């Protein structure tokens, strides 16, 4: 059975869990920084040439950015677990087990989103942008610009791929339902299309390669919400019958 906690206890518990997440983020960033050379070499292979720097500050800036992305990836399951621990008192036993499954799913979807953007979208965008020079410029690509361009493109996709798990969680809480998501389908498709057109080269194939996975994610989210909502309705009906 769920148990109630005083407001002060909730605030103290929330503060403690936020501190845990921040501590893990900082420690993860330090660990990633120690191995940042390996991260750099792994991610720089799409550049096609040795990247330039404009000063010593660029080296630190690049290494901090790469370490931060690695730290975020490591911290996501920890943050999800802390959220789960925070809401556990309000959940039934079955709901606790279901919510616990969100943690690996959040991590895996984030990594999958980053991988999709890095291996599919980023090379396509990088070649297109460089092709715009058309031999009119002498290209000197700095490492800072290269990794900023990469992270600005890849990181949002890692977060967008979390959509099904977020919808599942909100559906369990009763905040979202399939009817509401279905009504939002047209404006959601429009937003996804705008995102796709904005971040991809101006050709039809590139737009399709990005918008299709995003639409599939949205439809998966509706299906998940429909399943969860149906179970909630059944459980409510059973509970009402038992009370009668």
UniProtKB/TrEMBL annotation:
Pfam family, one: TatC
InterPro entries linked: Sec-indep_translocase_CS, TatC
Membrane topology of this protein: Multi-pass membrane protein
Main location: membrane
PROSITE patterns per UniProt: TATC
Transmembrane segments: 20-42, 62-87, 99-126, 146-175, 187-204, 210-228
Entry keyword set: Cell membrane, Membrane, Protein transport, Translocation, Transmembrane, Transmembrane helix, Transport
Cellular localisation: Cell membrane; Membrane
Subunit text: Forms a complex with TatA.
Function: Part of the twin-arginine translocation (Tat) system that transports large folded proteins containing a characteristic twin-arginine motif in their signal peptide across membranes.
Protein family: Belongs to the TatC family.
Protein's name in the database: Sec-independent protein translocase protein TatC
Organism, as annotated: Brevibacillus porteri
Gene coding for it: tatC
């Amino acid at each position: 059975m769920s148990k109630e906690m005083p407001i002060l206890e909730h605030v103290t518990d929330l503060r403690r869990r936020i501190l845990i997440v921040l501590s893990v983020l900082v420690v993860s960033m330090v660990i990633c920084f120690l191995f940042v050379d390996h991260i750099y070499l792994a991610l720089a292979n799409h550049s096609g040439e040795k990247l330039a720097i404009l000063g010593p500050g660029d080296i630190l800036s690049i290494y901090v950015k790469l370490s931060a992305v690695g730290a975020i990836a490591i911290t996501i399951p920890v943050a999800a677990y802390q959220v789960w621990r925070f809401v556990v008192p309000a959940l039934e036993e079955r709901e606790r087990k279901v919510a616990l499954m969100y943690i690996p799913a959040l991590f895996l979807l984030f990594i999958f989103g980053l991988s999709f953007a890095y291996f599919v979208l980023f090379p396509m965008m990088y070649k297109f942008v460089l092709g715009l020079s058309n031999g009119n410029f002498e290209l000197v690509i700095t490492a800072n610009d290269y990794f900023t361009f990469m992270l600005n493109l890849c990181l949002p996709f890692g977060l967008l791929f979390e959509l099904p798990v977020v919808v599942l969680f909100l559906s369990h809480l009763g905040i979202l339902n399939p009817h509401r998501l279905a009504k939002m389908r047209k404006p959601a498709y429009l937003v996804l299309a705008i995102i796709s057109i904005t971040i991809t080269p101006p050709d039809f194939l590139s737009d399709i390669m990005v918008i299709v996975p995003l639409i599939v994610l949205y439809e998966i989210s509706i299906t998940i919400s429909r399943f969860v909502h149906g179970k909630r309705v059944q459980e409510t009906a059973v509970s009402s019958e038992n009370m009668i």
